[in-house]
Amino acid sequence: MNLTLKIWRQADSSSKGQMVDYKVTEISEHMSFLEMMDVLNEQLVNSGDEPVAFDHDCREGICGMCSMYINGEAHGPDRGVTTCQLHMRMFKDGDTITIEPFRAAAFPVIKDLVVDRNAFERIQQAGGYISVNTSGNTQDANSLPISKHAADEAMDAATCIGCGACVATCKNSSAMLFVGAKVSQYALLPQGQVEAADRVQNMVAQMDLEGFGNCTNTGACEVECPKGISLDNIARMNRELMKATVK
Amino acid sequence: MGGFFKSSIGRKVAMALSAFFLMFFLLQHLFINMLSVFSPDAFNEVSHFMGTNPLVQFALQPVLIFAVVFHFVMGFILELKNKKANGVAYARNNGAANSTWSSRNMIYSGLVILAFIVLHFIDFWFPEINTKYIVGDMSGLHNGEFRYYHELVEKFQNPLRVGAYVISFILLGLHLAHGFTSAFQSMGSTAGRKKNLQTFGKAYSIILPLGFIIIALFHHLINNH
Ligand code: HEM
Ligand code: SF4
Ligand code: FES
């Protein structure tokens, strides 16, 4: 298929960017979206132009790097996929596709479609861990009984890949789905209890400090999240914060 | 505790608490207003009680005013903070693909409600406060009869006012269509995401504004003189 691409180009974090039109031809519907971008970049390099910078790593939906806002949706129109898993068969010959970086004040653009998501790292560092003694005398994990239900929910929360689609989608640029998932994966397990109060307080404080917005429960994040992280995790985070406050 | 209500989540919890109070208030307000359709006498009696009972006047009324003011001031603060959290606007953004109109436009439905509240205060609350506490007439009487029902009917003779009320209540319905279940989520409850409460919330956000609209139309069209 032949496509028109409208892509955000921005030389570096301090310069002003703008949308630029490109044409790509003979795109196979079996290609992934990133392969289509590779075709465009090859074309740009061959004609002596600057290729479009975009983040990617695993190209199999697990690293969370491939942030792109495609036709007004994080990771494009398909559900439960990252950009690298998005197939070109989702588009039609002759389509115009708008491609923008993930937008949020806390995710500044570094170049073209590449944004700085270190704010997520700093939130994780504020409490997204458990302090386990790893000096050889760790407790056997099987000695801690965990209900199937709690284990499943914790695992579901832990599938968050930190891609930032929730923030990019949210009209408030809120990071609460991400933080809710990261709080929940420990809040549900006995190993997470010792630091539970500090964890939620510190992570929420860091989230606020980074300048993410306030959730208004539109639910857009849950729809666009490639891993299907549930809004229940935000409710759980809110409960955890209330618990930590009255404790 | 102070830190909690300064956090993004604490603010949302406070927002939801004030909203719960408002939703409960509206329910009793509708109930009393409904009396005006079925029994003018009962409406007069209850209005007089609500208007002169010290507990209602000096305990509940201040709480209500605080809740309303708190709710919209916090609504504005959160909206401004959220706008600041946004980066450059998207050239193309497909909000309808993942969320409802009412959830994305709470601030606009809220603004219409706020404009309504101003009109409503000018219509009923200021004259009431004037009569009772400035003029000092606590009798509730006019020419020897209770004045409440008569005043209500009088107000709804003006088609412009009725129109403004109808539009405002439609926007209130949209505000509540998202707000009702959202408030549960903000309070950390997943109940708002389950079928039962969603159905209840839908019913509430349709029936409550519709009730107020029917009352306004009833006095305008049927109880016309
Ligand atoms: C006075 C004018 C009003 C304004 C400006 C306003 C504004 C807002 C805004 C911006 C929100 C979203 C905030 C958020 O979710 O964080 C909101 C939420 C809400 N509002 Fe209002 N509102 C007003 C009046 C009312 C009234 C009269 C009611 C009650 C019937 C109400 C019920 C709700 C509910 C239930 C929520 C959801 C609370 C939550 O998500 O935590 N609002 N309002
Ligand atoms: S919650 Fe979903 S959308 Fe948000 S960072 Fe995690 S995987 Fe990405
Ligand atoms: S490149 Fe790793 S998730 Fe897309």
Automatic annotation (TrEMBL), chain A:
Any one biological process term the GO annotation gives: tricarboxylic acid cycle
Alphabetical list of InterPro entries matching this protein: 2Fe-2S_ferredoxin-like_sf, 2Fe2S_fd_BS, 4Fe4S_Fe-S-bd, Beta-grasp_dom_sf, Helical_ferredxn, SDH/FRD_Iron-Sulfur, Succ_DH/fum_Rdtase_Fe-S, Succ_DH/fum_Rdtase_N
4Fe-4S ferredoxin-type domain mapped to chain residues: 151-181
Transmembrane segments: none
Pfam families per UniProt: Fer2_3, Fer4_8
GO MF term set: 2 iron, 2 sulfur cluster binding; 4 iron, 4 sulfur cluster binding; electron transfer activity; metal ion binding; oxidoreductase activity
Keywords annotated in UniProt: 2Fe-2S, 4Fe-4S, Iron, Iron-sulfur, Metal-binding, Oxidoreductase
Alphabetical list of SUPFAM superfamilies matching this protein: 2Fe-2S ferredoxin-like (SSF54292), alpha-helical ferredoxin (SSF46548)
NCBIfam families to which the protein is assigned, alphabetical: dhsB, PRK07570.1
Family, per entry: Belongs to the succinate dehydrogenase/fumarate reductase iron-sulfur protein family.
Protein name per its UniProtKB record: Succinate dehydrogenase/fumarate reductase iron-sulfur subunit
Organism for this UniProt entry: Algibacter amylolyticus
Origin organism lineage: Bacteria, Pseudomonadati, Bacteroidota, Flavobacteriia, Flavobacteriales
From TrEMBL, chain B:
CDD domains recorded: SQR_TypeB_2_TM
Signal peptide per UniProt: none
Organism domain of life: Bacteria
Alphabetic keyword roster: Membrane, Transmembrane, Transmembrane helix
InterPro entries in alphabetical order: Cytochrome_b-558, SQR/QFR_C/D
Annotated TM spans: 12-38, 58-78, 106-126, 162-183, 203-222
GO CC terms in record: membrane
Protein name in the entry: Succinate dehydrogenase cytochrome b subunit
